[in-house]
Amino acid sequence: MKPISFRSITSVFGSIGIYLALGIALSATDWPKWLGPNENNQVAAADNFDPNLDNWKIAWQKNVGLGYSSVTTFQGKVYTMGHDGRSKETIAAFDHTTGEELWSYTYEGDLIPSMHVGGPNASVLISDGHAYAVSKDGQVICLDANTGKQVWNAYLTELLGIDVPKWGFGSSPVAFRNEIIVSAGKVIAFDKQSGSVNWISPDTRKPGYGTPIIFDRNRENFIAATDAGGLSILRISNGVEVARKDMRVKFDVFLTSPAIFEGGNKILLFNNSFSELYSFDGKALSVDWSDRKLQNTLHGSVRLGDSIYGMNGGHKNKKTSLFSRNFSDGSEQWVVPNYGYASMIAVGDTLVILTEDGELVTAPANSDSYQEISRKKLLDGICWTTPTYAEEKIYIRNEHGVLIVLDKI
Asked: Would you call 247 exposed, middle or buried from its count of C-beta atoms within 10 A (0-12, 13-18, 19+)?
């Protein structure tokens, strides 16, 4: 695999999805969990960040195994997961500057290649000196983040009394105080240090694949969790449901995570069947707007000011479009048809986009039009994993496990 074409394009076309919540102090240093430090796929740009990809080079490259686990980073270490294509899955840590493997932890794990190459869906969480991961077949693993030594492990199938879902487990672990939270139909809270179960939500739901989001509303903490049949708001103290929105999604495949805004009062949800904005008053969910023609199979959307940006359509679909919408009422601002599927993050006010075909693209977030800054073909194969920006580097990978790290020239 080697880089191919490099071009700069300017056009009046579309930007892409990431939740850009304004007014939040962000660090460009670490990306320690799924969706980034603030769970919105957004970080501040370093002072020397350059949106022109002509001024970037490949710093190092590794093969990390099959799968879709995004890169997480903390204090100079890079973490991800992959599968060997036979019977073993691996969690690995690398030096962010040199790419030297610092440690790896390998275990027996199912590939589950159902309509894709298989391998882990979830991303590694770094919290309080530990690395937490969920395997494709539902093993919850806690390792020492510096050495890779196992601290504890657990099995979701045993604890929740369920089978492995058709496409494997997809929820990345999230941390709240002394607990690790994982969603798999029911939501389960583990003690961070011991792995003992503190609580399991009482309502039985068919597992989805999205990661739960923890949020604070008026000094009360909640969990927004999706499953195959809808969205639940749970009390974080015991997993008891306080609000529910049942919904039907195609094939019972709910892959995306909720996005929380305005102090927990607004919740934006995208899935493969529709998009909706809800108001949450601490007791119930009400719909602000709904659009059944606005769909995204794998990723959520992004907010910048009172605009959202995202992909409308499915993966493996060249007709998937790019859009900008008004956050408050969902009205269309612009659309770029036939863009093809992509994922993205925001670095400051720059969208960093990875197309399904392996092109890295940069564009300013602009609700009036789409002005592409640069585009570079870097990866072959299918790319469904969201990029990461941390320690002034950009991390991208494909489903075959080719991980490329870009640094400024």
From this structure: middle
